Every structure is written in structure tokens, then in C-alpha cells.
Amino acid sequence: MKEFVLIFRVNGNSDVKPSPEQMQERMNWMAGIAAQNKLVDKGNSLSPVSAKTVKPGNVVTDGPYTEIKEFIAGYIIVKTATIDEAVELAKANPIFKTGGNIEVREVIKRD
Amino acid sequence: MAAQGNSYRELLPHLFRLEYSKMTAVLCRHFGLQHIEVAEDIASETFLRATEVWGIDGIPENPTAWLYTVAKNKTKDYLKHVTVFETQVKDKIKPDTLTTEEDFDFTQQAITDSQLAMIFAVCNPANVAEAQICLALQILCGFSLQEIADAFLTKTETIKKRLHRARVNLRNDTFQIRLPDEESIRSRLDAVLSTLYLLFNEGYFSRSNNHLVRKDLCSEAIRLAVVLTGSPLTNTTQVNALLALMCYQSSRLNARANDEGEVILFEQQDKSLWSQPLIDKGNYYLVNACSGNEISRYHLEAGIAYWHTTPADASKWQHILQLYNQLIIMAYSPVTALNRTFAFAKVYGNEKGIMEAEKLGLSGITYYHSLLGYLYADTNAEKAIAHYTQAIHLTKSASEKRTLTKEIERLRRAFPSPGSGCDQLVV
């Protein structure tokens, strides 16, 4: 089994609080992965507000690092045999309904 | 009160169950865990003496006090004997450890403290879970080899070996049999709770068809957990959550099995057989459990068990699913995964439930197939029967085979298919 980090990106303007239904959908998704015994770490959400970006030359800007209007909202770690299987798990996430996306990255363990 | 000469046969087993383990615990605290056999011998001899004397003289005024007086005297005799041996035969005195002067403290407080210490000594992570339960049953609950073998559906010889190995580990452990300090309590409380949890489950989901043994296992687990709530050191929110869970589950014990020992599914249970006093107790402990911020697996499971005691309304299964979601994210187990899927199907319908179930990869487990059989039953009788048949192949429980066979027969009657003669049922 390999481990993959699923990184959630959302649009900058979607920092409204998720509805109870959306929360329930997310929980169902994550619990569905856990029920297959493929959840390694339930990860964390990353605050969009308490965020700074540090750049070369002592430049510190407010807010998370953004590429266009997207920022990283959180992550979880799963274990699957292949990256394709991890991608299949990601596809069922409700994030796509609100214009977000998921980056899937294999974890390379340091010795 | 005048004692009836012949009723001691009924009273003694009851007293044995109640007092044997307490007596052993108090004595063991004195002798040390290395000499647990001495403590057990004295306790056994005390009860043997009771059968001899009570059979002739009748039951004494205060049977419990009688037992403790005899135990006290036997202990003094033993210590005197050992001291004589040590001084005259081995010519060596250890006045620190061996004294005949000491009066044995069989007060309520001493018993509670000793039992608490004994629980912590027996629930020893050095032993595998199954061995811990066997030890707990023998030492903490006073079960006989035969009774333990019945509970595990195993030969007494196997249990004997298992207990022997476990006792060697117990003696080699450095754990001191006194009231543990805060530090060791913290480090071992998890192991204690999981042993009590397993002990309870062994009764609740027992492989044994003996209904009485099963009830005993459950009530013993509750009794020991109540001992834990008796000390401020161990009266944690987790303990209360576990107690709440056990009370809620126990409230359905009488409704869960029919006279033949077959399990009656939740939805078909006669709710008038549920015990309201136990549900009330569960509520009491659940309120205590929620006094802190901590959420353990016992909290989640107690929450689920609570919802099962409430009448069905629109939101009930939503709540249960949310709790199962948290539980499966906290700790994976196949049973939790399958129970969560059942709740998922209750909320989102059988079709979505089937999709969720088929992802689980648990085709080697009976419950996986009986769950899919249930989910398919309304829409695809053929598939339902195939899964039920698979479940019958996998289960070792005779009563479960009967229950599943009945379900297949019901489906065959409801959906007769022209080619149904070909799939022979092997039971």
C-alpha cells in the first residue's frame, strides 16, 4: 500500500461557512474512505483567515498563498495500492460541486 | 432469621459469585500478585468449609460475615504455618513480609480498594485480549473453568492452558497489587476499559447459546465498571461512557433472543421486553460522560446505543450515521464499517447502501453477506438469496444459520422463480 495526500483547493470567494448538509456530505465521503480501511490520517482544515505568506526579502503578505484565486483549504492522507485508486476516492468528494479541486500526491517517506 | 437447612445449596453459589473474587482481591493485596494461588486457595477452602458446615448446621445468621471470619482465620493459620516453616525449618525470618499479628481488613473500603487494584493488575497488556478476558472471568468474576469454556465454546483444556500462560505473565509483571498511583492508572486505564468492553461483548454477542452465561458476562462487566466509578481516580468520563453503553445494550438482552437462543433482529424485537430501569441508568451515565470535552469511542458507541432506545423518527438514523462516521474515522473495524453502511442505507436508501457496501471488500465476513442480502431483499431476490447463502456458508453459529435459512425460504415464497431449483442450499 502507498500513501497519498489529497490536497483540497477552493476558490478565494467561497470562504462562506459550509452548510450542515455540505458538512454531512464531506463527513460521509471521509467516513466512506475510512470504512474501506483506506484512511491514514483525517488531516486538518487550514484557516483562510489566520494566514500569512512569507516571501524572499522579508516580504510578508496577509492571507494564504494563492495561485489565481485558489487556496489550499485542507488535506487528508489515504492509503491505496495505486495512484489511480486514490484518484477514484477523490472523485467522489463533494468539493467539485462548489468549484474546488483536489491534488493527489504520493507521499515519499524520508528514511 | 431462622435458617433453612437445605437452602444453602441455592445460597452458596450466589455468595460464591459475589464474594469469592472480593476475598481473593483483599488477600492478594496482602500476599502480593506472585502468590495469587495462595489467596485463591484460602478463598476456595473457605467456601468448601461453608458447604460442609452449612449442610449440617444450617445457614448462619450473617453468611457473608461468617465467610470472612473463616477466611481471616485460615489466613492467620497459613501465616503461622509459613512463619514456623521459615523460622524453624529454614531458620530465616522476614518480619516485614510475614506477620501473624496483622488483622485482616475486610471492611467495605478495603474490599473496594483491593478490587480496584485487582482489576488493574489483571487487565494487563502483557496478555493478549482473549487471555485477559479469561483471567478477568476467573480472578475478578469467580467463574469456573467449565463456565469460561462454555462462554468461549472451547474445551476446558484449552482454557486451562490459556489461563496458565496468562498467569505466568501476570506473576512476571512488575505491576504492584496495591491501589495504583495516578500515573499508572492513567497508563493502564485504556487497557482496563478495553478488557471490560470485550468482556461485555463476549456476553452480548456470545458464541454460547447459554442465555444465563451471557447475562452473567454482561452483568459482571457492568459490576466491574461500577467499581471503577467508585474511586475519584478512575471515575473518568470514558468509564461513564462505557457504562452508559453497557446499560443501554443490556436493556435489550431479554428481547434479543427467543427461547431457542436465536438472535432476534433489532427491528423485530418486542420493545415491551426492553428494560426501562437500565435505559434510565444508561441516561444517567451518559450525562456524567458528557461533563468533559473528551470524546472517546465509548462516547460515540454510547450515543449510538442511546438513539437505538428512542422511537423511530425522521432524524434518528441521521444522528446514528453521523456517530458511526466519527467512529469509523477514529478507529477502523469491519463491524463498525458494516454497521455504518446499514445506517447509511437507512438514511439514503438501499440502492446507495449497496454501492457503499460493495466497496468495503469484506467478502470473507458473514455479516457482509447478510447485510447485502438484507439490502437486496426488496429489489433483487436472486442476489439477496445468493448473499444469504454465502453468509450461511461462512457462519459457525447454528442459530444464525437457522435465521438466515428462514429468510431465504421467505424470499423464495415471495418471489418464486422458474429456475430456482438449481441453486441448492447447503446448510
TrEMBL record, chain A:
Listed InterPro entries: Dimeric_a/b-barrel, YCII
YCII-related domain mapped to chain residues: 17-108
Similarity section: Belongs to the YciI family.
Name of the protein described by the UniProt record: Transcription initiation protein
Automatic annotation (TrEMBL), chain B:
GO BP: DNA-templated transcription initiation
SUPFAM superfamilies in the record: Sigma2 domain of RNA polymerase sigma factors (SSF88946), Sigma3 and sigma4 domains of RNA polymerase sigma factors (SSF88659)
Domain RNA polymerase sigma-70 region: from-to ranges: 28-80
Gene Ontology MF annotations: DNA-binding transcription factor activity
Short name of one Pfam family: DUF6596
Domain of life: Bacteria
Gene3D superfamilies linked: 1.10.1740.10, Winged helix-like DNA-binding domain superfamily/Winged helix DNA-binding domain
Residue intervals of the DUF6596 domain: 188-289
PANTHER family for the chain: BLL6612 PROTEIN, BLL6612 PROTEIN-RELATED
The protein, known as: RNA polymerase subunit sigma
